[in-house]
Amino acid sequence: MKFKYLICLLLSVLVFGALASFQTEKKPFKKPNILFVISDDQSFGHTSFAGSTFIKTPGFDRIASEGVYFKNCYAGSPGCAPSRSALITGRYPWQNEQSGQHASSWMKKYVPFVDELKANGYVTGRTGKGVSPFQYARSSADSLWRKTDAAGEPHSSIKYDQDTLSLPTKSMSALNYFENFKYFVENVGNEEPFFFWFGASEPHRAYEKGSWKRFGKKLVDVKVPEFLPDTEEIRGDLLDYAVEIEWFDSHLQKMIVYLEEIGELENTIVIVTSDNGMPFPKAKANSFEYGVHVPLAIRYPKKFKAGRIIDDRIGFVDFAPTLLELTATELKTMMPISGKSFRNILESDQEGTVDKTRNYSFVGRERHSSSRYQNLGYPQRAVFSEEYALIWNMKPERWPAGAPQKYDSKDTTALLPMYGLDEGGTYITDAAFTDVDDCPTKTYLIENMETDSIVRYFDYSYGKRPEFELYDIKQDPYCLNNLSGVSELQTIELNLKKTLLEELRKSKDPRIVGPDKEIFDSYKRYSRIRKFPKPL
Hints:
It is built from 13 helices and 12 strands. It is α/β, with parallel strands linked by helices. A hairpin with a 3-residue loop joins strand 10 and strand 11.
C-alpha cells in the first residue's frame, strides 16, 4: 500500500509539474496586426461590391465579402485633412483647432491613436499619404508642433521607375505601396504586432486624360451621378477616376495575398475606407452624400463573422475608440474622444441594424483650399440620419465652391475674367471656383454654363445656397431636391436641427459656443494662397 501511495504521489507531482511548466511557458495571446487602408477621394458607391458598373475592386470586394461591409460610413469632413484629423484623434475637426483644418499646423497635444498603439507594443509605420496636408515641426522654433506625421513613420522609399511602363498612367504616384509594406513587415516588424497605414494618393486629382482607353473601359458602362450632365466628356473623366481607384485596389490585393503567404492574414484586422468623396463638382468639399459618404469594409475572421452587411451609421470619430478597444490599448495621452466604439457591431452575429443607439453621423467643414477673399472658408455642419441629411451653411452669403473671380497668380494686380472664361469662352486654369479641383468635368460645366441643358448643373455645383438644406437621402442620394421649409417635414427638420445643435454644443464647437466664433478663419494656411477681390 505504501508503495502504491508513493507511486500515486510521484505521478501527481509529475502531472502538476508538467501543467505548471506548460502554464509558465505558454505564450501570451498575440494582439492582432492592423492594416489600415485609405484611398484619397472615393465615394461610397464606387466599388464593385457596392454595385459599380465601371469600377472593379476585387481587393475591396474580398475584404467586404470575407468580413463586414458598412453601408453607412461618413467621413469627418468632405476634405482630406480635417477628415483624417477626426479619424486619427476620435474628435470632430472643429474640436482640434488648427489641427482639424486644411493645410494648417499639427499641434503636439492632438495625439493620434497610433501613438497609443505604439505605447502598447505595436510597431507602427505607413506608406504614402498620411494625415495631411498639415505642417509638421520644421525646427525647434515649432516647439508646439508634432515632428512626425500623425499616421506614423514613413516607409516610402521604394518607387517605380517613371521612365518605364511600370505605372499605368503618368498622373499616379510613383510609390510602390506594396513593396514598401512588404519591406516594413520583413525588416521592421519582428515579433511584435504591427499597425500599418497604407494611404494611397489615388484617386486624387490630377488624372491623365483619356487613360481609360488603354484599359478596355467603355463609356457605355459608366453611371453618371445625377448632379452631373451625362456627356461623353464627363463619362471619360469618370473612367479616368476608375482607373485610379483600380490601381489603389491592386496594391491592396497584393498586400492581402502577401499576408496570406506569410501566415499573418488571419491575425490581421484589415480596414479599407476613403477620406472623403470623389473629386468632382458637388462632391468633394461639399457635405452632400457624394462628398462625405465613403466605403468601409473590415475583415478579421477570428472575431468578426464574415459576409455581413451593416446599416448602422459609423463616423470617422468612431475609428479611434474601436481600435483602442480591439487591441486592449489604454487611452493615456490622447485628448478626450467624442466617438463611440463599434466593436459591439463587429463582434455581433447580426446584420442590418445592430446598435439602435447609432441614429446619426455628424460632419463639418471650414476652409478647404484658398478660395475666397482673405482666405475665408465656407463653414458647414451636417447631420445624417437613416433617411435624411440636414446641412447648415453657416455663411450662406459666401460662394460654396469658391469665388467666381480671382487675381492672376503671375500678376496679382491683374483681375482675371468672371468665371475664369477668356474672350473665346475657354476656361483659364485655376481661375475660378477653386474649392473644386480643376478637371474636365469642372471645365465643361463652366464653359457650357449658359446652355439651357447645362445651367442647372452649373448651379448645383457653383451657385450660392440657402442657410439650411434638407434631403431625403434614400429617395434623393444625389441631394438635388432641397426639402428645407416643406411644411409636411417641419417636425423632421426641427428634430434634426435640435440634434445637430445639441452635438455641436456637447462637443464645444467654437462656431456655437465661442468665445471667438470666427477663429477658424484666423488659422494660418501653409499651402498656396490665392488672391481674390473683396466681395461687393
